[in-house]
Task: inverse folding
């Protein structure tokens, strides 16, 4: 694996004893491992969630998480972001509009006292399966462009090249040119970071595609739809629930993007050869 050219907050050097062809090496070797840090998200001083994430691009992460959770409707609802390292993690303080804060408080009061279902820290099943608005159709996309985007994203996974431990999410235009890539130890976090970067940089995300280095779970489709992107392409398989949501949300869902192959599950009319 390559060595970082300068110190990075998202990976740490370590010592490892190699096993090659069943034999243990006589001496330790140096390597790099990805960092995984508790990141607490606070909205107007209200502690909302603590996630384990790679400590990079946390402003993007905060905005993308807020969008995908329906806390904000767009970057105009964000008044400021401050990243505060603590001895045992990182606190990200996000200032949001008064209207968004009111909605957040109402939502928290509605959940108070209910029995948790244990799904990813969300307290009720409707919160997990909340509906998302169907995305706009966007421009037709050629299948060679989707395949090219996946290859191009892989070439930009610098943290994965160093550590071998992270997922990536990338956004490409309709021609397959990758414009943004974000990495994290968690596939959901990588996609939240990407959505936040698209929003903060005012990218017209609906004119492109998202490619991810993971399977396509329900949450990945949900986050793609919340970002307004009409195509999600995953290197691995989707779940049945992800396919149903993609069909309802007007998201074209592809899986098993490897070499020149892919499987197309929903809204094939958007993909052309």
Result:
């Amino acid at each position: 694996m390559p060595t970082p050219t300068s110190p990075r907050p998202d990976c740490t050097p370590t010592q490892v004893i190699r096993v090659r062809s069943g034999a243990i090496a006589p001496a330790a070797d140096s390597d790099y491992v990805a960092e995984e840090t508790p990141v607490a998200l606070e909205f107007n001083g209200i502690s909302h969630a603590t996630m384990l994430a790679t400590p990079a691009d946390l402003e993007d992460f905060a905005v993308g998480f807020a969008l995908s959770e329906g806390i904000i409707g767009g970057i105009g609802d964000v008044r400021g972001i401050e990243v505060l390292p603590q001895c045992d993690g990182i606190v990200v303080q996000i200032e949001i509009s008064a209207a968004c804060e009111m909605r957040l408080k109402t939502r928290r009061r509605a959940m108070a006292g209910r029995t948790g279902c244990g799904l990813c820290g969300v307290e009720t099943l409707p919160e997990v399966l909340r509906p998302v608005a169907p995305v706009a159709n966007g421009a037709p996309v050629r299948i060679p462009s989707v395949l090219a985007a996946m290859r191009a994203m892989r070439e930009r996974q610098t943290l994965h090249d160093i550590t071998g431990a992270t997922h990536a999410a990338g956004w490409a235009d309709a021609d397959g040119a990758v414009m943004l890539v974000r990495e994290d130890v968690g596939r959901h976090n990588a996609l939240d970071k990407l959505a936040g970067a698209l929003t903060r940089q005012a990218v017209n995300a609906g004119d492109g595609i998202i490619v991810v280095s993971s399977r396509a779970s329900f949450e990945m489709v949900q986050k793609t739809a919340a970002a307004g992107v009409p195509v999600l392409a995953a290197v691995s398989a989707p779940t049945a629930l992800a396919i149903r949501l993609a069909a309802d949300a007007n998201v074209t869902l592809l899986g098993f993007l490897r070499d020149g192959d892919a499987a197309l599950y929903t809204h094939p009319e958007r993909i052309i050869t």
In short: The chain has two domains: 37-128, 141-272. Confidence is low (pLDDT under 50) at residues 111-121. The CA atoms of residues 2 and 93 lie 34 Å apart. The two ends are 36 Å apart (CA to CA).
